[in-house]
Amino acid sequence: xxxxxxxxxxxxxxxKKGIKxxxxxxxSHYDAVxxxxxxxxxxxxxxxxxxGLKIAVLDKRGMGExxxxxxxxxxxxxxxxxxxxxxxxxGEEQAVRFYSLCKKAVDQLEETSRSVKRETDFIxxxxxxxxxxxxxxxxxxxxYDALTKHGFSADYWTGEEVREHLPFDKPAALVTYGDAEVxxxxxxxxxxxxxxxxxxxxxxxxxxxxxxxxxxxxLLHTSIGTFTASHLIYSVGYDLSAVKPKVGxxxxxxxxxxxxPIEDLSLWNDRALIWETNRPxxxxxxxxxxxxxxxxxxxxxxxxxxDESWIENRAAEIEKELQQLFPQxxxxxxxxxxxxxxxxxxxxxxxxxxPEREKEYYLLGYGGNGTVYSMLGSHILCDLILGKENQDAExxxxxx
Length: 400
Ligand SMILES: Cc1cc2nc3c(=O)[nH]c(=O)nc-3n(C[C@H](O)[C@H](O)[C@H](O)COP(=O)(O)OP(=O)(O)OC[C@H]3O[C@@H](n4cnc5c(N)ncnc54)[C@H](O)[C@@H]3O)c2cc1C
Fold this sequence. Notes:
single chain; FAD/NAD(P)-binding domain; D-Amino Acid Oxidase, Chain A, domain 2; 8-stranded mixed β-sheet; 29% helix
């Protein structure tokens, strides 16, 4: 299954990749084996490593070459489903708890970025969500009320205030604080280098083929032999061939571009992460080297687009929409890609223990906030593996 096509931007920002050499020797036993070396897998490995566990991570591709290299790197606590909508869906206490976990996960991502001691282009940003139409202004006000009632820092801008702060005209906007941007590819490879130094066993181009239970251990059969582990984590992203779960997922596809560097981005309010109320939404951010990365135009098709001219066509559409928002900027796309993108039907990720197989766990951060979900999920899984109680596990469990 191809997870992306077109010309990706992030891999070009890192000449020397993190992993020195894929291992070929398998140890006799691991505390945890992680299938999938994308954002989810490396964050899980990082989190488990802090607890002193002996870990192996394997990937049938190169590490970080799955969907994580197509990620546009916005780290937001606000979700595809707004807080007031989530309150209607799962109740106030649970919804606020989930939003708080997401906010904390952005802090945990910052701590991780700092502790791996390599450049990841992690920068704190505020987010601006503008009302795509007059009819959506009320929704933003409702969201502002819900967020501030529960202690999340936010501002509501009227149309006049939007015009004061931004070069475009929209009926209203919601500003939230506490988000961040990252170069996801650098971030993954920074963590991988750290994991390697700390003795985590990393196996590239090794495919997980099946499992078996033997006494207290799991035998994982792979293309290079059998791993024996106490616990197994599936962080296989949108490629579900290894897990075939019955989760309520919708696998779609999405598009993104990165522009040529732009000398002066000073009119971009605090270089905020910008998105909108329309679904699917257009979203955009700036990069450390002064480009704009923007994405959107999701389509309900499960395969990454193959046709290069179709990707070019969708990318031109994103470029045009961007230019309409920022008529003063010389916007010229330099990279364009299309990728598979997984969402869940109830807008929450799938994280937790397999309903029947006690020692097997899933870390599937489906949704626009995938990285944030992977971070919070790695802490939930860490507790489950260590046998600690985690009340948040109920929120995102597979059989909900
Ligand atoms: C266009 C686009 C933009 C996005 N923008 C954002 C954003 O701004 N912010 C955000 O938070 N998220 C964003 N996301 C989502 C984000 O990319 C995902 O949440 C993230 O990549 C998921 O990481 P992962 O590790 O779960 O998946 P992946 O990176 O795909 O890693 C899974 C790995 O598992 C491996 N694998 C699968 N099966 C096997 C097997 N049988 N054996 C061995 N290995 C296997 C694969 O090779 C793969 O490398 C975006 C996604 C797309 C497509």
